[in-house]
Amino acid sequence: MALSFQRRCLLLLCLTVIQSGHAAVQTCMDKHQVVGVLRQMEKFLKGQEMRFTEGLRIMKSKLATLQNSVSKLPQADQSAASTTSCPSLEAPAHGTKFGSKYLVGHEVHFTCSQGHHLVGTPTRVCRDNGTWTGTSATCKDISECASNPCQNGGTCVEVVNQYKCTCPQNWSGSHCQHQTQTDVNECEVYRLDQGGKLCVHECVNVPGSYHCSCPSGYKLLPDGRSCEDVDECLSQQHNCSRGTTCINTGGGFQCVNPECPRSHGNISYVKTSPFQCERNPCPMDSRSCHVAPKTVSFHYLSLPSNLQTPATLFRMATAAAPGRTGPDSLRFGIVGGNSRGIFVMQRSDRQTGELILVQQLRGPQEINIDVDMSEYSDRTFQAKHVARVHILVSPYNF
Q1: CA-based nearest residue to 329, from 294, 377, 283, 282
Q2: How many angstroms separate the CA atoms of 47 and 329, rounded?
Q3: Alpha helix (H) residue ranges in 155-211
Q4: Are 6 and 27 in contact (CB under 8 A)?
Q5: N or C: which end of the chain has fewer CB within 10 A?
């Protein structure tokens, strides 16, 4: 049976052999010729299999590269991010709303006008399911007389965003704290008649007259009523030692010498100016160093007490070096010091972010807040810059 099968194979593999290119003779190959032909066919099939496998590998590699390129297109993220949005939110009565985008991940902030306090959630975030976090914000009126500010039997009367004390006989002053003298008190007469203060700071009654005074660190202006801060740094009236810098504040000054962040791991900084530090070059394989702030700058702001809000206090921006293209995207944020929700960081244009005061500050007090700016190119993180803002609030409204 096996022999018969072999013979059939030999008959099937008979080939036409061209000899010397002159004559064609039909013959049947012997066993050794058949084995040789089979080996040649086996080599041919293996070669075809290798080419096919290599072709599949190349096609898979090109497909993966194409998918990666498509996933990085801005339109892909934008279309995905914009599929879900939340209902629009309105500013509460006697309040202000910050933020006009209602897509997933966007924030909306609410603050109240002077004389009102916020009830509800001051910051709401649009969630993936199209709803806002928190509860609706409303602004409730604050009773100015709740603290019983009038002394010596005075009666507190509510007026718009403030109060007035109606004093009993023989008492005067904004809180009925002064006993009436036989001399005419021009300061109190002016306040009662005109509904305001004769002096910006303090009116001092003297027999037959009056004069205005200013607190320490301020000078009286030629109008005899207003006060102006004395710049001790500009007038060289400070005692700052060498190596420190004089910073003028309301009614005084401070001697400062900010320090760079401490070195840790592969991250270290060098001071390039009195108010800026730059990160030393990072090792190629250190990701933690690459994402650390490239620059850290220090800024000092002096503010009067009860500054009207909203007020823009600080701006961050970037500019490309000559001959180099700048980042195509910037992100701004507050990274420290805003636990009470006093500030909001928002974009004013494509290259600039603004730190905005949204709640009034009463001095004296000092506040530190850190804001950062991250640079992206082709949606890839490039560098981060941190600004440390030190705010010094005066105890006075001027």
Answers
A1: 377
A2: 51
A3: 186-194
A4: no
A5: N
